[in-house]
Amino acid sequence: MKLILLDRDGVINQDRADYVKTPEELVLFPQALQALQLLEARGIKVGICTNQAGIEKGIYSEEDLSAIHQKMQKEVKKNGGGELKIEYCSSADDNHPMRKPNPGMLIKQMKNFALTSLKNVPYIGDDYKDIQVAKRAGAIPMLVGTGKGYKTKEKYAKELENIAFFPDLLTAVEYLLASGFYKDN
């Protein structure tokens, strides 16, 4: 199975300091839509792993999040992308096993896609927690500059020395496809 796992906020859509609380606040990056279309064209499955602590904090509801994800799925499909398998953690507790940087969501995605390992699966995010969770789950960590990415790269320069960095999701996906990464997987 060919699979890629992605963070949501800052990778697929614009991140907001006050959370994406409604479908109207969800602004997808055009290059992310292009990347998702390329993945669909190559038969590569896409899983999303996203912390959504705003639910536990009472900022938005599970129903709001469902509406946001419905809009995202609709926009992705309208632009030639495929179905996204979304896992989220509504807890604000950093010790919760599903909340990144803990690997629960990635492990759940591994099971969703009937894999026994994430060894050959990239996980792309924009935050240091995304790099940590990828390592903890045994996936391949990658960082993009959108969202918090450039600030993360600057702040954690030493820790990220050997982590692949790309300006955005499209550039990362184009690299993976051009390098033949998915040829043998």
Molecular structure report:
The chain is of the alpha/beta class and 185 residues long. Helix content is 35%, strand content 16%. A 6-stranded parallel β-sheet has the order 3-2-1-4-5-6, sandwiched between helices. Strand 2, helix 2 and strand 3 form a beta-alpha-beta unit. Helix 1 runs parallel beside helix 6. The longest helix is centred in the middle third of the chain and has 17 residues. The radius of gyration is 15 Å and the shape is globular.
Strand and helix map with partners:
Layout: E1 3-6, H1 30-41, E2 45-51, H2 62-78, E3 84-89, H3 104-112, E4 122-125, H4 128-137, E5 140-144, H5 149-155, E6 164-166, H6 169-178
Parallel strand pairs: 1-2, 1-4, 2-3, 4-5, 5-6
CATH class category: Alpha Beta
CATH superfamily: HAD superfamily/HAD-like
pLDDT < 50 runs, ≥5 residues: none
Strand order of the largest sheet: 3-2-1-4-5-6
Shape: globular
Indicate how many domains the architecture comprises.
Answer: 1
Overall pLDDT: 97
Q: What is Rg? A: 15 Å
Outline of the structure:
The protein has six helices and six strands. The chain is of the alpha/beta class and 185 residues long.
Which terms summarize this structure?
6-stranded parallel beta sheet, 185 residues, 6 helices, alpha/beta, Rossmann fold, 35% helix
